[in-house]
Design brief:
Low-confidence stretches: 1-7, 13-32
Order of helices and strands: HEEHEEHEEEEHEHHEEHEEHHH
Strand content: 15-25%
Structural class: alpha+beta
Number of helices: 10
Largest sheet: 8 strands, antiparallel
Radius of gyration: 35 Å
Strand order of the largest sheet: 1-2-3-4-8-7-6-5
Length: 350
Amino acid sequence: MYLWQRKEVQEMLRRLTGVAALLLAACGAPAAAALLTDNLGTAKRVSLVTTRLSDEGIWQEYGLSGSETAVYEGGGKAFTATAWRLKDPTGAQAAFRWLRGKDSRPVTGPLAQYSRFASRTGNSLLIAFGNYLLRFEGGDPSLEELKILLFQLPNLDQSSLPPLLEYVPEAGLTPGSDRYILGPASLEKFYPRLSPSAVAFHFGAEGMVARYRARSSEVEMAVFYYPTNPMARDRYPEYQKVGGAMVKRAGPLLAIVIAPENADDAERVLALVDYKATVTISETTGSKFVNYGDLLIAIFILIGVLLGLCLLGGVLVYGVRRLGHKISGIKDEDPMTMLHLEDRRGGPVP
């Protein structure tokens, strides 16, 4: 784990950011902290503006809390960086799938080692990292520059990813066609065939819509995840009321295909949706590796502690006896107990 990924370092950065904000407020300066740092190694920030947004209703559902665009120059290159900060990794994943484009391709190599969610479209690089979405245009930052940028991101949240990602089928998925749905605005944008009242987002539902290649046609399927099985069971009849809908329930999942071009292809795609409950039990297991060097060191330390306790006990006993004799005035007894065996035989012992 890199230093910038440790929770202690992140907590320290959060506290420092808070202290800086208080100092700025006391001095009358604006307290808003920049998302993009001034320097990225040899690349220096030459401009910084607030990113212009469209579809603000969708950004609000995704939990956008700040966005910036900056131009960096230096080291013989120049590129534009844009950062969006979302409320959690779910919002970042939703924005990543929205902005990456249908012609995007996965990124491999050193720049992808910090996140498995990185894609490239033309000369644009898009990376989802925790609750942040980062885009670089006109050129790529070096690995060291990217590391510096990720290290200084304020209010970084690297909690777990949304569970829905585990259950959306990948077989036959058309690359770049998946879109995340977190509320009525994104539902209207990406899957208007279904009404918000049927989904019931107040239950905490999250969905994803994508296109799949089948035998003779392309099928558009939406999969919604509910917090509990009873919630999904309750919404199942509402999904069936949609005209031309084919619906499947699997645990807390509801999958729907509306008015497919080919019903058999729709059935094949719906069959890919599966839910398997998993139970995780934490067990304490002993290590199979024994470090004998540490074991010997621990033995010698234990011996030293025991010897020290013995010496300390002897000193305490001696001190107590001397103090008792001094207080009572009794002289010290002979240092050795004599049996005087020669007195019983009338002479010395042969």
